[in-house]
Amino acid sequence: MWVLCLGFSSMALAQEPVDLEMANRIRHEAFHRSQVMDILGHLSEDIGPRLTNSPQMARANAWTRGKFSDWGLANVHDEAFDDFGRGWEFSQASVDLLAPRAMPLYALPKAWTPGTSGPVEGEAMRVTIKTRKDLDQYKGKLAGKILLLDDARAYKPGIEADSRRHSEVSLAELQSFPLPKGGRDRAALVKRYTERQQLARAVNEFFAAEGVLATIGISGWDNGIIRVGGGGSRRAGESVGVPELTMMAEHYNPLVRALERKETVKLRVDVKARFTDEANQPGHNTLAEIPGGSKANEVVMLGAHMDSWHAGTGASDNGAGVAVMMEAMRILKAVGAKPKRTIRVALWSGEEQGLIGSRAYVAKHFAAYPEPTDPAQKALPASLRDPTGALQKKPGYERFSTYFNMDNGSGRFRGIYAQENAAAMPIFQAWLEPFHDVGATTVTSRNTGSTDHVSFDAVGLPGFQFIQDRLDYSTNVHHSNLDTLDHAEPDDLKQAAAIVAFFAWQAAQREERLPRKPLVQD
Questions:
Q1: Which residues contact 237 (CB under 8 A, 6 or more apart)?
Q2: What is the set of domains in the chain, with CATH numbers?
Q3: Contact 106/218 with Cβ under 8 angstroms?
Q4: In this structure, are residues 380 and 478 in contact, taking their beta carbons and an 8 Å threshold?
Q5: What is the pLDDT of residues 199-230, one digit of tens each?
Q6: Are 245 and 215 in contact (CB under 8 A)?
Q7: Which pLDDT tens digit goes with each residue over 113-171?
Q8: How far apart are CA 184 and CA 180, in angstroms?
């Protein structure tokens, strides 16, 4: 039963068909027979963190392929993207204060840094390195030392709740569109990026040559939370430096203060970490689909990045998104959906290193700008490269309808960002109406970035991210050791899966593809 969605001021909204019968079927399956927490639990607690190209990521690829096949999805496969680098994993990390008194300290290693090959002991030394020239003052002085790389940081008491949901006020604020404040200074961004990369390589080589035992930096968050990403190098043939760790602020600060008091600080560090490949390897995205009918050569996509950092178990970033997208596909199969267009799900890899997996997929199947020939430009992330010519479109470009993404933790959907696509807004308003009673009401013209829908949006394809309640994503779990299943909200994930399934169905059934906004090329 298709009905017309009435009661909105826009004529386009009044004419957008909304399949309320399918909405009911999806809601019932999602709310009464959900498997979303089973999926997330297996990803985060049985498999664990999923650093790109790690053995655990390979396990996740294999397990999700198996689930898709069990559910009866078609064209289940992994698709490689070239030359990501080496895999890495760690199994143990400990730091102990030996002097001026004894106590255990809490720290975790950065990804793609070496282990210690057994416990090592040495005096702590504070160093400040902001430019390559700063290395000169330390030549011949660092052998056998464990270096503290940061200043102590004053504790900041929290003044707001750790976990937050949108209010009527904050959702209303999203209805205003902040005018852009001018273009970015690409040359300045490239300069900073290049200098940062060159300094990192120089420091890796210098510390290794000087005989440094390990380095320790301070976590960016307080309250015992350790936020940690990558260090060393994932690239075979480049120096990986020495073991690098990030320590909770409340344990790091006393070490610096003791050194400032001229006390001898002695530490023991033991990190078991290893590279799992000798040479650079491709990464892999996992894909599956529900084949379409009368418009089978056109595609609606939904997806989330399956890779994570390694401090926690990758539950909120982004096991939650993966579980929701997988559950949405399961729901569609369970309710017997026979879409006109093909509905395809993609579980991306390499997102944390710069949307690598989704960018590669879009370039292969839909469109890309010409690759630069200048080696300096090729070494830059795609977002920082100079324009290289007109967009090169593949045959799939005109057969693509839309992509929906999830990557902001496990919070409830409150609506969707339209990415300045005004023509899509009344359509989304109609599609959201069957979910007003579970909190999803808002369509904003605003952009949001920093995740995989950007790979589609960058080449003029409709790609969207949902508005979510933030919960404690930005205060406790993002890239931290607290990114675990305990911080996920089951009811929120059930609601999100229902909305994703319905949006995918509606997009697949429309007479026309989703409208596109004008493509703006630099």
A1: none
A2: 3-87+279-509 (3.40.630.10), 88-275 (3.50.30.30)
A3: no
A4: no
A5: 999 999 999 999 999 999 999 999 999 999 99
A6: yes
A7: 999 999 999 999 999 999 999 999 999 999 999 999 999 999 999 888 999 999 999 99
A8: 10
